[in-house]
Amino acid sequence: MKKIIIINGPNLNLLGTREPEIYGNLSFTEFLEKLQEKYPKVEIDYYQSNVEGELINKLQEVGFSYDGIILNAAAYTHTSVGIADAVKAIKTPVVEVHISNTFGREAFRHTSYISPNAKGVILGFGLQSYELAVQSFVH
Where is this site: Transition state stabilizer (predicted)? Predict the structure, then answer.
């Protein structure tokens, strides 16, 4: 059985209520339940934090024992050299995910410190971006 963790960064705990025109109306908990039902042979763990250091700690904790990490570092994608270094330092492959198309938003969102160290990047498909990332580890 594959063991994958989804790690979400700041403000993603507000999915379902935060800017529904960008992020949709479904909470991440509701989405995660559906995802786990769809992939019963994959253990999908979940972690969310608004704190940069906690995200780094989690990456280091799981980065040598999981089969895959799906990381949506949210705004830290564009600012955190620390998270980028953590992704580079671990052995577990990381797929960078974004719900929105970051290239269709403000210019500062066009830069990712994580992408150069990620297995791949999926963005702009709403919550479906996470499922595409799961598929990249399963198939």
Answer: 18
Strand partners, 94: 69
Q: Which residues fall in the annotated binding site?
A: 72, 78, 85, 99-100, 109
What is the pLDDT, as a whole number, of residue 61? Answer: 98
11 vs 68: CA distance, rounded Å: 23
Q: Which residue has the higher pLDDT, 35 or 101?
A: 35
Domain enclosing residue 131, as ranges: 2-138
Number of separate domains in the chain: 1
Determine the pLDDT at residue 59: 98
Contact 13, 50 (CB under 8 A): yes
Catalytic residue numbers? 23, 98
Integer Cα distance of 103 and 133 in angstroms:
19
- What distance in Å separates the CA atoms of residue 30 and residue 17, rounded to the nearest whole number? 13
